[in-house]
Task: structure prediction
Amino acid sequence: MSPIITQGFGEGGAPVAPSVPVLSVADNGDGSGGVATVSGSDSGTTNVIYTEPYAGAISSGSWTSSGGTTGDGTADLSLPVGWYFGFVSSTGSGGAVSISELVYFDLTSGTVSVHYQCLEAVQAAIQAAVLVATGSVLIKKLAVDRSLKDQGVTLPAIILSPGTETMDRNAGVVGFDDVVYPVQVVTAQADNQESTLASGLSLWLKTRQNLARGFRQQPQSVRTMAPTINNVWVDPRQPVVPEAWKQNLLVSILNLNFLSREPRGFNT
Result:
């Protein structure tokens, strides 16, 4: 994509468009934003850097001036963690303008993996929905087992754990790949093998329904904390796990799959 726009060409003293600038952005990696570098521009030109958060597509009319330089140079971009599009507009002394190509860049905290961002985002969303007590929405390495009661966890509880990510070699775009991060959502409550096999089932299934509806096809539900996520879909598993019921637990499982578009290379 080359949105190169020039103004002022012509004879009779009309201003000549300045050289087309080049924009690159380096991530600070600490949550403070990044540093933009403008190169290839003419000396004395006024270069304004515009950015737009990436929300699955380029939207219309939301470009924001985020910094600038006079001629070539660098500018701090004080932007929140997330993915962005950006370009630089270079204005010469006669008022003619040239615009760089778009760049796509990521600003990170440098400490949290995308998969863990998904886990934390799901935890925060469920806590906000108050489906169970706030302290009973837990991130664990492994799914629920009988030891939960021995650990003092208040039931009912919702346990979140990472699933095995997938990387389709044919998915993505030039320089970027699509990675799917599963989050296993396990809802557990004490059941004690009650004899009717029906008590509380309607409410149990309603909680499962709420969990699915709260996330499916709604990447915006987690994007504040996991900004690379472009889509979410639900992979339903057992609504009642027989093995857990035999251990006096009523357990339901849903997998949430988070699609992330990511760059290649170490420490990117």
